[in-house]
């Protein structure tokens, strides 16, 4: 009898641990624990975007840099310490905009006042990104909730996990496909370049080497390249110099980004690569011709990205501050 009792206790404990570690994301996760969650996020991102119009693009980039390397666990938000160089201080992340970090911090501060120790930084980043995308004209998509924040953030895990502006298309494709994303999803996510800007240092080496006549399959439109040379003159002394990724409608989320690529008006080497590579060009052309298709595919790809290798239950924590592990 005692043996049966012990076995029952062990089985019950194992079942409890399994249940506690296999929590699934849900749309109403904070309905009871933090009913003001969505309202607080919406109010925070609205105020921030109005005062700093680059916030939407920056936060969208921040989410990608958080999710793609190690899953959507808010690890990119953590600051370095004397004992650990965190993800945000990896070379490729040094250009992540302060406004993106700031909007998450503001939302976290407001949520801690309303419902302490309840909402993860990873959930805040995911929802804030979606709300900001829709604010600038992009599609609405569902964001499931219940992520936990990661307990590890190391800069050493970032190299080769994120595409560089100068990366060959084959390397960029490998980064996405090795994480389970299709080519179509990769191109759709690249449409995020319809908003935001790039620093001159990321493409300066390319703007002095371009084709003199159409088609501009692999190079810049000559007049555009000359304009970039003027806009970026002196960037060595002023590393903050930058240019909009989409020169036609830089502050509106639309399909203009895909329409300018065949015209040699892309900014980065990776932008040109999307149109030049036979594997990705069909998707570029499809999105250039049909904004609704781009929006639909982008929304589905963002839902998938936002759920990439999330941690739940006992696997993570709810940080007291987004920039520090508890």
UniProtKB/TrEMBL annotation:
Chain positions recorded as heme b binding sites: 193
Gene of this entry: LOC111469882
Obligatory cofactor(s): heme b; Ca(2+)
Catalytic activity: 2 a phenolic donor + H2O2 = 2 a phenolic radical donor + 2 H2O
Annotated PANTHER family: PEROXIDASE 31 (PTHR31517:SF11), PTHR31517
Name of the molecule in the record: Peroxidase
Active site: 65 (proton acceptor)
Binding-site positions, Ca(2+) 1: 66, 71, 73, 75, 87
GO biological process, one term: hydrogen peroxide catabolic process
Signal as UniProt keyword: yes
Main localisation: secreted
Free-text function comment from the UniProt entry: Removal of H(2)O(2), oxidation of toxic reductants, biosynthesis and degradation of lignin, suberization, auxin catabolism, response to environmental stresses such as wounding, pathogen attack and oxidative stress. These functions might be dependent on each isozyme/isoform in each plant tissue.
Residues the UniProt record annotates as site (Transition state stabilizer): 61
Signal peptide: 1-22
Domain of life: Eukaryota
A Pfam family it matches: peroxidase
E.C. numbers: 1.11.1.7
